[in-house]
Amino acid sequence: DLLQDGFGEHPFYYCLVAEVQNEEQIERSYTVGYAMYYFTYDPRIGKLLYLEDFYIMEPYQGLGIGSEILKILSQAPLETNCSCMQFLVVIWNKPSVEYYMRCGASDLSTEEGWHLFRFNEETLLRMAAE
C-alpha cells in the first residue's frame, strides 16, 4: 500500500528521500531519511502542506541532511500557494521541538491551545453504524 499510495499513478502523499552511497558498491545507495507529506485544506487558513512524518536515521543526524530536506520541502508550499506547513511533534521529543522553534516554527499547542484527537477504526465503525 505504501508504494502504491505514494508512488502510484495518483499519489495520496509525497515523499522526499535522503540516500547515501554504499561505500562497497558505488552504484548502490541506501535510504537514511525521508519526509512524507500531503496537501490539505483548512477553512480558516486555506491550502497547507501537512508534514506527516520526518525521520533521519540516528547515525546521520547532525550532518545537515534534515536541514537540506526541510529546505527543499519548504519550496513545495510556496510553489503551490499554500499558507503554511503544519506538523506534529511528540511532546517528549525535546530536541526536535527546540530545533523547529529555532527554525521559526510556532507551537500551536501553546499559542492556540489545540488538542489532537483521533477516532480509531473501532470507534469509526461504531459511529457509522449508529
Automatic annotation (TrEMBL):
InterPro entries, per this entry? Acyl_CoA_acyltransferase, Diverse_Substrate_AcTransf, GNAT_dom
Which controlled-vocabulary keywords does the entry list? Acyltransferase, Transferase
Matches recorded under Pfam families: Acetyltransf_1 (PF00583)
Residue ranges of domain N-acetyltransferase in the record: 1-130
What is an example of a GO molecular function annotated in this UniProt entry? spermidine binding
| Any one biological process term the GO annotation gives | putrescine catabolic process
Task: Please give the family membership noted in the entry.
Answer: Belongs to the acetyltransferase family.
Identification of the protein by name: SAT1 acetyltransferase
**Gene designation per UniProt:** Sat1_0
